[in-house]
Design goal:
Blueprint: E1 8-12, H1 16-27, E2 31-36, H2 44-49, E3 55-59, E4 72-75, H3 84-92, E5 96-97, H4 99-106, E6 111-115, H5 120-134, E7 141-145, E8 163-167, H6 170-173, E9 182-185, H7 193-196, H8 199-211, E10 218-222, H9 226-229, E11 238-242, E12 253-257, E13 260-265, E14 268-274, H10 283-298, H11 303-310, E15 321-326, E16 329-333, H12 340-347, E17 354-359, H13 368-377, E18 380-384, H14 388-395, E19 406-409, H15 413-423, E20 429-432, H16 445-457
Parallel strand pairs: 1-2, 1-4, 2-3, 4-5, 6-8, 6-9, 7-8, 9-10, 10-11, 11-12, 16-20, 17-18, 17-20, 18-19
Antiparallel strand pairs: 12-13, 13-14, 15-16
Length: 460
């Protein structure tokens, strides 16, 4: 373990990652400065949670003098790298890092890392269940990163024979110069262009998950996603693939055939499970299961552990989560869908008539393909939040001869729920799948999903 005694560490961002990292560094004797643009009053809950730790709080902005005497700057995922403070740190030669980088540099067991524009939370949760089924007590499976708790706080509890599964976002990967032993890129579709500006920059950030692997490492790519598969020439170790269609005999990986999920290795086949055992809705979730199976086999999990991980798994919170049946209407929470592409996948999961709730803060992503899907598939659209006008303009109105649909515009999510309740009929699905971030009204997609659940359950 690195000796942090008396080193000056500046942590930017007092959210989940920054707080966990600050606790870790403070316990090891570092002189921690925790900086956030929010005011003291806005950060009172965070300050209360950090009582007992010797931390210097600097709030209300990011003044450049924070860098004076600092040895390293840790950047939380939500902080853009063009922040003037970070640009100045680079100019001064002060190294930048984050909690995931530090974790990978110091953890003593192999790590599975999973990224993708869509499905990474579900796939990470699935692989975590498989890991838990495979590990032998007293060893443990640890699941974290961009999902759940940052694992940096548990670093000293992790044993060499434990298993670690990390979800990694493009925001985390953008800074990183170390890759996991087993690394998966599920897919790469337009997302977070408000942060990365171009698809080239976004793809480059995602590719960091495999860019620093060595010859003994393993990369898992989606052979049916052009941008994921386009990274295959960057693989330095073993390549494992996944997809629905059967691959050539030259490729190892998973596929679906006649209702069975197979593992192919050196031309030999093993049946892992039947598709009927998958409880998750939608073709995108079939791909998530195929990916999880490929990752688990690459990591050396037993087929029995893989089956146990899939059986009984009904998904993660806020991802096509069933909330309530109300007056014959099924209400679903897909708050985690913060890009139009993810809304398209959610729509494909249903055959019932759909009332769709869209809105929040736009990420500068294209809406055209989703708009076309809505005109073909959705009966009622309710738009809300900052992006409501932009979304409404993208969808337009039914042209002559097109199937009819209605569109209602609201300011807030609570109003949108009531508007959906007013138009929904027995047999319909009401789907919150916003296609936007939540930051115009909520702390994160989780808070938005929890509020949606609460208000839906309050419908009389």
């Amino acid at each position: 373990m690195k000796n942090w005694q008396n080193l000056r560490a500046l942590v930017i961002g007092a959210a989940r990652q920054g707080l966990a990292l600050s606790r870790y560094l403070a316990r090891r004797g570092a002189r921690v400065i925790l900086n956030d643009q929010r005011s003291d009053d806005q950060l009172q809950a965070e300050k209360d949670a950090m009582q007992g730790f010797e931390i210097e709080w600097r709030t209300g902005g990011h003044p450049l003098e924070l860098l004076d005497g600092v040895d390293v700057v840790f950047v939380s995922g939500g902080v853009p790298l063009e922040l003037p403070l970070l640009v100045e740190a680079v100019r001064r030669g002060i190294p930048l890092s984050n909690d995931s980088q530090l974790f990978l540099e110091q953890v003593i067991c192999p790590v599975i890392g999973i990224t993708g524009s869509a499905g990474k939370t579900t796939t990470t949760a699935l692989v975590g269940r498989m890991a838990q089924a495979d590990v032998q007590p007293p060893n443990k499976a640890w699941v974290g990163g961009n999902i759940g708790n940052p694992l940096i706080e548990f670093l000293e509890e992790i044993k060499p024979d434990d298993r670690v599964v990390l979800e990694l976002s493009s925001f985390q990967l953008e800074l990183m110069s170390v890759s996991p032993h087993v690394a998966a890129v599920l897919n790469i579709t337009p997302n977070h262009l408000d942060r990365h500006k171009t698809m080239e920059s976004y793809v480059a950030a995602k590719a960091h998950i495999i860019d620093f692997q060595k010859s003994g490492d393993i990369a898992i790519l989606n052979r049916e996603d052009n941008r994921s598969w386009g990274l295959r020439d960057r693989v330095k170790g073993r390549l494992i693939t996944f997809g629905v269609e059967r691959p050539s005999q030259k490729l190892d990986g998973t596929f679906l055939e006649e209702g069975q999920i197979y593992w192919q290795c050196n031309g030999d086949l093993v049946i892992l499970l039947t598709a009927s055992e998958i409880l998750l809705r939608g073709e995108h979730n079939l791909l998530n299961v195929l990916a999880a199976c490929a990752i688990a086999m690459a990591a050396g999990f037993s087929p029995d552990s893989i089956r146990e991980g899939v059986r009984g798994f009904r998904g993660v919170a806020h991802r096509l989560e069933h909330v309530r049946t109300w007056r014959g209407v099924e209400w679903y929470n897909d708050s985690i869908a913060t890009a139009p592409e993810r809304v398209r996948a959610a729509l494909r999961a249903f055959n019932e008539p759909i009332v769709l709730l869209l809105g929040g803060r736009d990420k500068h992503l294209p809406w055209d393909e989703l708009a076309a899907d809505i005109r073909r598939r959705v009966d009622h659209v309710v738009v809300f939040g900052e992006a409501a006008e932009k979304i409404q303009q993208a969808i337009g109105t039914p042209s002559f001869g097109e199937r009819p649909f209605t569109i209602t515009r609201c300011d807030r999510l609570e109003e949108a729920i009531q508007a959906a309740a007013d138009v929904a009929e027995a047999g319909d699905v009401v789907l919150l799948s916003p296609g936007c971030t939540s930051f115009d009204a909520f702390k994160d997609f989780e808070e938005r999903g929890e509020v949606y659940r609460l208000w839906v359950n309050r419908l009389p």
